[in-house]
Specification:
mainly beta; 11 strands; 7-stranded mixed beta sheet
């Protein structure tokens, strides 16, 4: 099994930045897809950014150009940089992992979750 531990959430004004980190431990070699999701009360969890461990990141349309996803494979740390934040970006952010599929790393493959970290964007 793999363990995911998120840090770095907080409160920020619109236009501000935050950096979320996810430290992975355990059987990380079995999970080649890593990424971040977010959820707000009353809404379904949605994918934000994802990547194959040995490939490049992909982003939801709502965050393209503002968020950046990077992975340090040697340290097994996944970082999501959040820039130009908007109130709609508020929510609980979850680090996630899943198995690589024939089509790559679709949102549906993610089935291991961290405990979540809160992001609040408000003036």
């Amino acid at each position: 099994q793999v363990q995911l531990v998120e840090t770095g959430g907080g409160s920020v004004q619109p236009g501000g930045s935050l950096r979320l980190s996810c430290e992975t431990a355990g059987s990380t070699s079995q999970y080649d897809c890593v990424g971040w999701f977010r959820q707000t009360p009353g809404k379904e969890r949605e994918g934000v950014a994802r990547m194959y461990r040995h490939g490049g990141p992909a982003y939801a349309d709502s965050v393209k150009g503002r968020f950046g996803l990077t992975l340090d494979n040697t340290k097994n740390i996944l970082v999501l940089q959040l820039n130009s934040l908007k109130p709609d970006d508020s929510g609980t952010y979850y680090c996630a992992a899943g198995h690589y599929q024939s089509e790559g790393c679709p949102w549906s493959t993610y089935n291991v979750w961290g405990q979540g970290t809160q992001v609040t964007v408000s003036s």
